[in-house]
Amino acid sequence: MQRLLWIGSPFFGPALQSCGWQDVALYNFEDVRVFCWEELVRLAGFTPDVLVVADKSRPPFVLGMERFPCLTVFYSVDSHIHSWQPLYAQGFDACLLSLRDHLARFAGPYLPPERIWWSPPFAGDADRPDPAAPKRWDCLFVGTVNADLPRRAAFLEALGQRLPGLHVTRGNYRELYPQGRVLLNHCEHGDLNFRVFEAMGCGGCLVTPRVGHGLAQLFVDGEHLVGYAPDDVGDALYRIEFLLNNPPLAAYIGRAALAKIDEAHRASHRAQAFTDRLCDLWMQDARALVAARQAKAEAIRENCLKMPYLLWAEELAAPGLREAYLAAARGRFGLAGMEA
User: Fold this and answer.
1) Closest-CA residue to 115 (of 79, 90, 98)
2) CA–CA distance from 298 to each of 66, 256, 294, 302, 329 (Å)?
3) Chain Cα centroid distance, residue 299
4) Which 3 state secondary structure label does DSSP give 162?
5) First CA to last CA across the chain, in angstroms?
6) What is the 3-state secondary structure (H, E, C) of 82-139?
């Protein structure tokens, strides 16, 4: 395989190291900034054959990709809260998409459906059961609860009033999950979130909303997890109490969940599937695909990228970023490494 640069949230990027690539460079960052080609080559330490731009749930941070001389892939995880992503994706050769029900949104004039690949969330290799951990809580939710997540806050408050054994907290979920008899999930935006896979990877008996996005295609309700009607406190309560009253069933579901994760839903599985897709794309004449995108670069910018860039220029107060987005909207990309 060829040389790959992965920029953005790591996700399964580190697992690519064992998938036969010649070189894999990973670069994550926490400041708000943008990159163009010269900066990316410098960061990688080589000229990449493949670039992956991985969602950080922030403004677009790679500019000019419609003209890049390598295969380009956009990895979207938070399409449920970022309406600009389908337009941005048109500047890439392919797109990985976490949320299955959004596949049609990303198909457009420059990115055909056959190059939009569903890549569901997954469990990390460190998401494992701890048989020695004591069961401290009947029902455990681990995650953010605040005013920015009003549906979740209301759901958990109402459930807690009827389920005294509910424990809501934040922290290291890998240490916390093994201490819950039943693990609870909530999806504020109806997305299939990583919490599903992390809880199952820790061997937990998971109660989660039936959200779509391929959940039913990946897991069997009542076998690998237990589903409830989204935001239905009564339905969730009924299922949690049934599991608490039937510990052997809860234990069985936890074991089945772990087996399913180990079989098909860890970072290594996503990395290998991605590598196989890139190999197929490479065999279809990657150079011709890149050349075709470059030939359409001006049209891609004008028809798909210009408006989001102008909106981000208006939204972001930092002068450097504003100038970078304005320049990109005009087709100029000389502001490598601009940051707030």
Assistant:
1) 90
2) 8, 51, 8, 6, 10
3) 28
4) helix
5) 36
6) CCCHHHHHCCCCEEEECCHHHHHHHCCCCCCHHHEEECCCCECCCCCCCCCCCCCEEE
Q: What amino acid occupies position 210? A: R
Beta strands in 150-232 (DSSP E): 166-169, 180-184, 206-209, 226-228
For 222-231, which contacts have Cβ atoms below 8 Å and span 24 or more sequence positions?
A: 222/253, 223/253, 223/256, 224/200, 224/253, 224/256, 224/257, 224/260, 225/196, 225/200, 225/253, 225/257, 226/253, 230/187, 230/190, 231/151, 231/155
Length of the chain as a residue count: 340
84 φ, ψ (degrees, to nearest 5) = -80, -15
Coil vs helix vs strand at 331: coil
Question: In sequence order, which residues have a C-beta less than 8 Å from that of residue 81 and are 6 or more positions away?
Answer: 57, 189
Residue in the block written with tokens 């065999």: 283
334 confidence band (pLDDT: 50, 70, 90): low
The amino acid occupying position 140 is L
Q: How far apart are CA 250 and CA 242, in angstroms?
A: 9
Closest CA to 228 of 187, 173, 257: 187
Nearest CA-CA partner of 155 in 99, 229, 212: 229
Tokens (6 digits) for 74:
């956009």
Cα(183)–Cα(285) distance, integer angstroms: 47
Run of H or E including 258: helix 247-264
Tell me the pLDDT tens digit for each residue of 43-102. 999 999 999 999 999 999 999 999 999 999 999 999 999 999 999 999 999 999 999 999
Other beta carbons within 10 angstroms of residue 82's beta carbon come to: 17
Residue 91, Cα to own-chain centre: how many angstroms?
A: 19
pLDDT per residue as tens digits for the range 56-67: 999 999 999 999
User: At which residue do the structure tokens 């690539």 appear?
Assistant: 21
CB neighbours (10 Å) of residue 60? 22
Q: Is the torsion defined by CA of 242, 247, 248, 250 positive or negative? A: positive
230: which 2 tokens? Answer: 């989204």
Ramachandran sector of residue 123 (left: φ over 0; alpha: ψ -120 to 50; beta: rest) = beta
